[in-house]
Amino acid sequence: MTGLGAGRETGLGARQETWPGAGREAGPETGLGAEPEAARFWRNPALPGVDLLRARYVTHRFTRHAHDGYAIGVIVSGVEEFDYRGARHRAGAGSVVLVDPEQAHTGHAGEPDGWAYRMLYPSVEVIAEIAAELLAGRGTPYFPEAVVSNPHSATLLRAAHDAAERGDDLASSTLARAAFGTLLRHHAGRLPPETQLSDDPRAVRLAREILHERLVDPPTLEDLALAVRSKPFALIRAFKAATGLPPHAYLNTLRVQRARGLLDSGVPPSQVAGDVGFTDQAHLTRHFKRMVGVPPAAYQRAGTYKTRP
């Protein structure tokens, strides 16, 4: 399978490290102090709708951002800290991390030696399909707890990740589905359909629409507030309460999401920057790395599996 091969760019500081043995069965990440900071983002055709990240971070910090889909992973070593739903969470080795779609969160090392983890990012459609088969009732699955202890799920997640990395399609698809199913059975709730309707104040809803439409040339805060008949500080408070992000951070998250779509379609990173409203490629790279964990060029290479014979 393809991905970020040895010696390719990771975008983590000045290092150009990637995991030894990439594309083969990976061994355990232990001895954090002896390993450089590294990340590998890729996709496997056996897992449609699921992105994968294997990483060890020390100084890297994820800015507050949100994903279109779920973020589900297992901490292999060290400790990650992240702010999510108004609280700071700590996830140590063996913990399973569960972040719902469109929920703002951060991420950074919880101890000096950093943390290593395996993350899977299934789309809402992937999880909804599994939930429809396993869970009774209607509504979108959500995970009330951000960090859980479930050794069986942790083992399944890591095994699915290992199988995807070495190109074992049957094993990776089977183990990933088993892992998601186990987590849904034991840790998920169901939002009633009526709670899934947008409860954003009218001003926030209109402001979001404007930012979506004016991705490249957004208005000033004052003009945005005027357009939605609000006051600037009142709009900031309402926007953050509804989305977890102030308007400018929401816009950057939206730009990175759009950038991913353009990169997936083969648009060069240098062109993507201008197409989504960043001033230059360096500006795109800085925000992209702080939300996705790898730079745009590395992310784009990870999508080359589409042309795999």
TrEMBL record:
Any one GO molecular function term: DNA-binding transcription factor activity
Domain HTH araC/xylS-type: 205-302
Keyword DNA-binding (UniProt): yes
Biased composition (Gly residues): 1-10
Entry keyword set: DNA-binding, Transcription, Transcription regulation
Record-linked Pfam families: AraC_binding, HTH_18
Region span, Disordered: 1-32
Highest taxon of the lineage: Bacteria
PANTHER family membership: HTH-TYPE TRANSCRIPTIONAL ACTIVATOR RHAS-RELATED (PTHR46796), TRANSCRIPTIONAL REGULATORY PROTEIN (PTHR46796:SF2)
Protein name: Transcriptional regulator
Organism in which the protein naturally occurs: Streptosporangium carneum
